[in-house]
Design goal:
CATH class of the largest domain: Alpha Beta
Strand order of the largest sheet: 5-6-4-7-8-3-9
Largest sheet: 7 strands, parallel
CATH superfamily of the largest domain: P-loop containing nucleotide triphosphate hydrolases
Radius of gyration: 27 Å
Shape: globular
């Protein structure tokens, strides 16, 4: 008997034939929505054929005795060589099922080198052990994957995902039966629909004003549209129109009617991700294993904190998105979609037969729009997925030449009427002449409650200085996440109490932070950012009309690149007298002009995808600037800081669980440019913890946050 894996904690080795058959069956199940169950079944059967070799079997015995070197003899080449005789691309997936997907040239060179060294007895032993080792006829792939190189790229990623997830799960069942048992079946879509109806009935009838009426109408328009066939939809709802709940109502009802398995909500900002996940947890509070929140800052509860083992389930479900509702970041979604390593790609087969909501879709990086939109179109066209482009400021994706035929259906007909009904602010334009910071500060001082949003951290500090208000508050990424959350809580407290509250912020406040000021001042910026800032003014309609003052700052700066370009497009569009931003047509005109100005596939990713160069695509597809280093700041009370110090000591000593420690430290991180971090390290202001993570040894101000670093342009999208 040949074995797939060494002895588990119960002293049992795993039979190789049983492992191959189990992975084949699981992979076929996962690939059925891809139209590739047969191909996946053969992949599962072939992926570990190399383990039949005498060398590998001896390696397993040696590893149990503590004699084996790490890694062991190759076990992928035999299966890859069998796959290559039928469909060459499948050999790439077997080669990459440990490690990473490579390019065709790399995979062919790898296989040619290893085929010469194959143990001929290994194949003979495999033939004796398996009733059927090879198909009688050619393995069929979906026609789109055989005729279109871009379709082939996405198909192979999804098929690879089905294989590696199946392999991970069966291996886990052998080595970690308790973890495998923790992957209990999540709630189904029918149960979610029942919970959603119950939650909606509990709030129906609350409020009778125009805001409540508009939210009610939007919700029912979403339910009516859910009966339409799967595809690509637009959900255009003004700020305050109940988009979060209504989008989920469409998604759950649509999934129920069309047999789709899950709802995936992708959001650009972690702050909104956390906020949205909390909303959905309250809606679907009837049972466990429903809402998975997955992003870099998601803190999972310890297993013993919840009687239903929700913490353990969340940790396991995050590995492969085996949940009915996934709330994640656009970074997590799309960087996984274009990655090439098993751990990142493992979840991708769950995108098929799902409803995918892209919240605040206008924030998708323009330089990556072509690969992103192409993948979304293919998911809708070939894999029974539905894509919802959800925002108050609809991007005109059809203005991009590659997507002129984008057929997106409107969920809410005649959305303009809701923008008119929810018109709660008056725009004032102060563009010529530009305003000094002293002028802006004077306007803030004239009102007891005011929010000013500027474009850079340096500008925020300059306006704070000009304001000269010791009670003023500040929000930017100079503050760690825990600090920002406390500032937001204090802002909400002051606003609710009706006491003076003046807040100076960068664009982080536009990232889904639900605040409600009577006066908002916004430095000229990309048009969608101005509209987002206006969403923080008179949000609940408590007064007849709030004021949004858009001004050109005399001394202000702009982040380089796309943000500066988009601000220039806005300046050209509004002129010196402004524009009517209450109409969705303004956003459409802006995005049409913008997408004619910027490159929507700057790195040529589509070309690399056509060549199936998976490593190059993974290198080039970056949604966020990774030229930064994180430092841990000492913020909070004595107990908080003591815990931070304990975690830092643990990391320095390489003790405990480093992933858990890093996750717990996430709320206390501030990012600094690498070059700036090196300068600060030489100045003794940054101490080493582990590679890529430092400790801030300089001053951390209770209002201004990290002091001493050069305040660079704000970075918003984190995943």
């Amino acid at each position: 008997m040949a074995f797939a894996h060494s002895a588990n904690p119960r002293g049992q080795r795993q039979d190789l034939v049983a492992h191959l058959q189990a992975v084949a069956n699981l992979a076929a199940e996962f690939a059925a929505p891809l139209g590739a169950a047969e191909a996946a079944r053969w992949l599962g059967l072939w992926h570990d054929l190399g383990k039949f070799s005498r060398a590998f079997q001896q390696y397993l015995l040696d590893s149990e005795a503590g004699l084996a070197r790490r890694g062991g003899p190759d076990h992928k080449a035999l299966g890859a060589s069998v796959a290559a005789r039928h469909v060459g691309a499948l050999a790439m997936l077997i080669q990459g099922h440990h490690g990473a997907l490579h390019s065709p040239a790399q995979a062919q060179a790898w296989l040619a080198e290893r085929v010469r060294a194959l143990d001929p007895d290994g194949l003979a032993r495999a033939r004796r052990a398996l009733a059927t080792l090879e198909p009688a006829e050619r393995v069929a792939l979906p026609s789109h994957a055989e005729s279109d190189p871009l379709a082939a790229d996405l198909f192979l990623r999804l098929l690879y995902s089905a294989l590696v997830d199946a392999d991970y799960l069966d291996t886990e069942a052998h080595f970690a039966a308790e973890s495998a048992a923790g992957r209990s079946s999540p709630a189904n879509i029918a149960e979610l629909w029942t919970a959603l109806e119950r939650a909606q009935s509990a709030i129906s009838g609350r409020g009778s004003g125009p805001v409540a009426q508009a939210r009610h109408a939007v919700y029912h328009a979403c339910l009516a549209a859910a009966a339409q066939a799967p595809g690509i939809f637009r959900l255009t709802v003004p700020t305050g129109g109940g988009k979060t709940r209504s989008a989920m109502a469409f998604a759950v009802r649509h999934a129920l009617l069309h047999g789709q398995r899950r709802v995936i909500v992708a959001i650009p900002f972690i702050s909104i991700t956390e906020q949205t996940a909390d909303v959905y947890r309250r809606i679907f509070a009837g049972g466990p294993h429903t809402v998975l929140e997955h992003h870099s800052a998601a803190v999972r509860p310890e297993e013993d904190e919840l009687g239903l083992d929700e913490g353990a389930w969340a940790r396991l479900a995050a590995e492969n998105w085996d949940a009915p509702i996934v709330v994640t970041t656009t970074v997590q979604l799309f960087e996984s979609l274009f990655a090439n390593t098993p751990s990142r790609v493992r979840k991708l087969h769950r995108l098929a037969n799902s409803v995918i909501i892209l919240d605040e879709a206008q924030t998708l990086p323009a330089h990556l729009l072509e690969p992103i939109l192409d993948a979304l179109q293919q998911l809708a066209a070939h894999y029974h997925s539905t894509v919802v482009i959800s925002t108050a400021t609809q991007p005109a994706f059809e203005a991009i030449p590659a997507f002129r035929g984008l057929a997106a259906r409107e969920i809410v007909p005649d959305a303009e009427r809701f923008f008119a009904a929810l018109k709660r602010v008056r725009y004032e334009w102060h563009l010529d002449p530009p305003l000094a910071w002293g002028d802006v500060a004077a306007m803030m001082r004239a009102e007891p409650q005011a929010l000013a949003v500027v474009n850079t951290k340096r500008d925020a500090l300059a306006l704070l200085d000009a304001l000269g208000d010791p009670e003023a508050l500040h929000l930017s990424t100079l503050l760690c996440g825990a600090h920002r959350r406390r500032v937001i809580a204090e802002v909400r407290r002051r606003l609710a109490a009706g006491v003076p509250c003046r807040l100076v912020s960068t664009q982080v406040v536009e990232a889904g932070v639900d605040l409600d000021f009577p006066l908002v001042l916004r430095a000229l910026a990309p048009l969608d950012a101005i509209i987002q800032a206006a969403g923080r003014c008179n949000r609940e309609g408590h007064s007849e009309e709030g004021r949004v003052v858009v001004f050109e700052p005399r001394e202000g700066g702009l982040p380089p690149g796309f943000y500066r370009t988009a601000t220039g497009v806005t300046r050209a569009l509004v002129g010196t007298r402004g524009a009517d931003l209450h109409s969705p047509a303004a956003a459409t005109a802006y995005f049409r002009q913008l997408y004619q100005t910027v490159a929507t596939d700057r790195a040529g990713i589509q070309n690399w995808r056509r060549q199936l160069d998976f490593p190059q695509v993974a290198r080039e597809f970056r949604m966020i600037d990774d030229d930064t280093e994180a430092v841990v700041v000492h913020f909070g009370g004595q107990e908080e800081q003591a815990e931070v110090n304990r975690l830092l000591d643990q990391l320095r000593a390489r003790a405990g669980n480093p992933r858990r420690a890093l996750r717990a430290l996430q709320p206390y991180l501030v990012n600094i440019r690498r070059r700036e971090a090196e300068r600060l390290r030489r100045a003794g202001l940054v101490g080493e913890v582990i590679p890529g993570l430092g400790e801030w040894l300089g001053h951390y101000d209770p209002v201004r946050g990290l002091q001493g670093a050069d305040p660079q342009a704000e970075s918003l999208i984190v995943g």
